[in-house]
What we know:
The complex is a heterodimer. Chain A has helices at residues 3-13, 20-47, and strands spanning 56-57, 66-71, 80-85, 95-100, 103-107, 110-117, 123-129, 135-140, 144-150, 156-163, 174-181, 187-188, 195-198, 201-202, 209-215, 221-228, 231-238, 243-249, 252-256, 262-268, 277-283, 288-291, 303-306, 309-315, 322-328, 336-339, 342-347. In chain A, the strands form six sheets. Chain A has a six-stranded mixed β-sheet with strand order 14-13-18-17-16-15, with no helix packed on it. Chain A has a five-stranded mixed β-sheet with strand order 1-4-3-2-27, with no helix packed on it. In chain A, 11% of the residues lie in helices and 45% in strands. Chain B has 15 helices and no strands. Classes of the chains: A mainly beta, B mainly alpha.
Amino acid sequence: MTDDLREEAETKTQEPAPTHDKRAKILISAIAVLAVVAVAAGLAAFLGRSKQRAGVVGSFTVAGGQLTYRTTVQGPDFGKVVEQPLAAAQGAAPTLSNIPCERSYTASRVLLCLQSEGDLMSQPYAEIYDSSLKQIKKLEITGTPNRARLSADGRMASWTTFVTGDSYTQPGASTRTSILDLKTGAYIDSLEAFAATVDGKPYKAVDVNYWGVTFTADDNTFYATMGSTSKTWLMRGDLKAHTLTALRENLECPSLSPDGTRLVFKKRVSDDIRRPWRFTVLDLATMKETPLAETRSVDDQAAWLDAHTVMYAVPHDNDPGSDLYAVPADGGGAPRLLALNGMSPSVTSG
Amino acid sequence: MYLTGSRTARRIQDARATRERVPFNVKMLGVVSLLTDVSSEMLVAVVGYYLLNVLHESPTVIGFLDGLYNGIPALLAIPAAYLADRWQRRKLLAGLGYGASAVTKLGFPLVGPSFGGLSGLLSADRFGKGVRTAPRDALISLSTPPKIMGRAFGVHRMLDNIGAMIGPLIASFVLLWTTKFGTERRTFDALFVIAFCVAGIGLVVFCLYVVDQRDELRERSAASLGAAFGLLRQRWFVLCGLAVALLGFAWVSDTFVYLTLAHRMHLTASEYALLATGTMGTFVVSAVAVGALADRIGRWKVFVLGHLLLVVAYLTLSADVPGVVMLVAALVLPGLAYAASDGVLMAYCSPHIPAALRTSGIAVMQSIGAVAGFVSSLVFGVAWSHSDPASVMRWFALAMAAAVALATLLVSPWKEHFSD
């Protein structure tokens, strides 16, 4: 069949179609309608966006004894770090800083902030600010910020990010945990470079991930989670020796009490991948575990409000915000609301 | 005309055929693919953010869903293609696929922040992808004179990948916008509506301008299940499928090429994110030219040559060469290889498959490629964890060289004949 004949044959098998002119008209009107709908939807969202302020602009000092967190009030202040006195009345307006973060932590007149900059190519950074909110350090990091922690004296900083590029053998993201010594400038890009030991034997696997560091008072020993083959371990790390030793299984996101005797952590108590955890306290002297009164499965590295209470963020059901709750660390009592619209809480150490 | 019947006439006719314009139908299918890709990429970026930050799902859950959804198109492709042949309704099936993807976007504001609802909608989107691919390629091949098949597929793939390139770009704008202005429910709803509108325009173009190619079946049995399985008894089909599988096994997925590059060149996250643009850009720029070359010198020849480029790329990635050389080898060569394989394979196979079974045959070839790619990634991942990326690359270069040799033995690039 020649091509001309074929074309003829094709036109014959066509269904009776509207004329070219008519089709163009339909197309143009459809595009016009859809474009108007798209623009209207965009405008409605833009004009209807919240303009609510999250607190009062004042002197933000990173002073000891204050409760600091990032606000999740939707509007121009979303993500900014705020602080308020511990004794402040429930619902009192906190003091706003002008620093937006995705995760934050404060200790001893130091603020650690993980945030992304850049418009099209967003690049995450770890930033350190002093008590006058002057930036004293800024490091390029990789991945999506997830955990941030400082040692009580503000010298050691650590953060964990989710890195998608690293995970390839199985679904799910892998993590990367870094530690920075603000005094010496020593920087450990990834804890995966440390030598890990489980049950006295060196542990080597490609799927090893570390997350959720908490520092002890000596600024050399720290605790963290190691994950591998769907198990997790509490690891005790030694910065000088570059080693990590497994202490216990099934323990995530440890957080050391101010007196250094207990860890609050996420214990995996269910196979339901959507609500697997229960906050539990581990006494380091007796290795006795105490489940806390918070029964919701919360994905957060808790922080200590005081020697007897831990605090954490509970996500809202249908927006990017969360509320801060506190619960006694002895297993008794009940969770109480600490502050609405908050995340990454810390009580700044003195 | 007075030249009729002479040899010169045929040569003139041949020359005219190669200069022939790519059918309107193919261009329109390309535009539809472009718009649908833009819309889907917007969705991918937003849904990931939505799951993580609004529904507060953990990355583990998101990764799990991702794996699940990626399996759906693979499972659906062959049954959908068979139905398209059985009923000789390729436009219907392809339209169903495009329609499902478009309507899905409108579903997001309706189901709101419900995990079950979102999973269902994402499955529907993937269902659309699985259903439309093979009928669409069958339509392209049936609308195009065999002589310019390579170029026609090149034009479609170029448009398709322009969509895949600008989609993420738009998605980044969109995400920037969402995260800066409040990240509220209504912002997401607006984005879903916008994504729907983009896909909707694509669907309108599809309905108005894409013409179905339906063969009057001489006998009902021409597109029966038996006839479809009969394809698997045809020698060339089996040999070709085998060659495609071998070459697919040795093809290192982009992710691993980029990871190797990042590992060896110590790239930052933002540099890493740019790598795909290099490969895609090369693909888009060269797709039409490579398709036309395939029409001229032989499609299987170009298909095999494309894979030879990969041998060079993998060897470079495993060798001690300056960064620039490595970057070019890792991005430009695979880009050219895509241009020489994706559409060119379809252009090579299509004319060999009886028109009545065109969709099924195409779906089988595409599924072979997909499964081989999946196995290749698994093997690469395991090999990487027991060794280092440079030596795994060397092994894959070797494997690709062997696969090219075997593929040439299975289907000779020098004896390409068309029955037309």
